[in-house]
Amino acid sequence: MLAQFGRSLLDLVYPPRCVLCWAATADDGRAICAACAQQLPLLRGAQCPRCARPIHTRDGRDQLCGVCRMHPRAPLERIAAAGEYYGGVRALIHLYKYRRCQFLAAQLACLLCERPSVQALLADADWLAPIPLHWMRQRWRGFNQAREIGRHLRRRFGVPLLPAGDFRRVRRTTPQVQLNAGGRAANIRDAFAVRNNGRIRQARVVLLDDVLTTGATANECARTLRAAGAASVSLLVVAR
Ligand SMILES: [Zn+2]
Ligand SMILES: [Zn+2]
User: Fold this and answer.
1) Nearest ligand (C-alpha, residue 87)
2) 92 alpha carbon to ligand 1 midpoint, in Å?
3) Cα-to-centroid distance, 227 and ligand 1 (Å)
4) What gap in Å lies between CA 222 and CA 235, rounded to an integer?
5) Are 219 and 186 in contact (CB under 8 A)?
6) Cα(126)–Cα(141) distance, integer angstroms
7) Would you state the pLDDT for residue 214?
8) What is the mean pLDDT of each run of 10 residues along the chain (240 residues)?
């Protein structure tokens, strides 16, 4: 009762507020209000079943996009995403990653949990593998943004997280955002290594990251994991 009273008192002084528009919200544990949730650019329409790229089709049904038709042998088997990288989704990811709002990991995991394509991908996975950061970057940021989201997905779907030591970033690279598409692939080449093949051999691995841009990083991870014997590698991202 005392705890309840303390909580009510705290809500009176600091009422829960939406992290995006700062409006007072219901105390239901959600970080954003209903109006902001409604406006999030989630992938609702037709999309490519392989890479989750939003597409416009006459009958509104999913079909392979032009890029996937051109590159049938890409190292990533499938990509599933919750939303597009603009508006509220982008703002949430920025707060989470650069403003150290680590509590938003639960909210971002929630966006993923609700997507049928994400549920289908995780139902078939042996390991969830957050894309590793170089240890120096992780120390600077204070956490690996993908691994924190992964902890919530593990709890919800029961898919184990690949131990951080098994799959590591062994080389520091220039941040990909500073390079063009051609430079990104060269920059990231051989940046990852597998230490424990036993767990990865014949396994269906689902990589996890917050944002997909050109896919150079995820493709290099997939190439490394396939070379270590993984049966398949797919990718889960909050936004693409
Ligand atoms: Zn709001
Ligand atoms: Zn595609």
Assistant:
1) 1
2) 11
3) 45
4) 9
5) no
6) 28
7) 79
8) 62 78 84 94 92 88 91 90 96 94 94 93 96 90 94 96 94 82 85 92 97 89 96 97
Please name which ligand lies nearest the alpha carbon of 92: 1
CA of residue 116 to ligand 1 center, whole Å: 25
What is the Cα–Cα distance from 162 to 194, expressed in whole angstroms? 11
Range of the domain at 35: 1-39
Q: Do 200 and 217 touch, CB atoms closer than 8 A? A: no
Task: Give the pTM.
Answer: 0.90
Distance 39 CA to ligand 1 centre (A): 9
- Say which ligand is closest to the CA of 77: 2
- Domain of 161, CATH number, reads 3.40.50
Question: What domain count does the chain have?
Answer: 2
Can you give the pLDDT at residue 27?
75
CA of 45 to the centre of ligand 1 (A): 23
| Per-residue pLDDT, 36 | 96
Residues 24, 51: one domain? Answer: no
Tell me what pLDDT residue 29 has. Answer: 78
Task: List, in order, residues 6 or more apart from 159 with CB less than 8 Å away.
Answer: 122, 125, 126, 127, 128, 153, 206
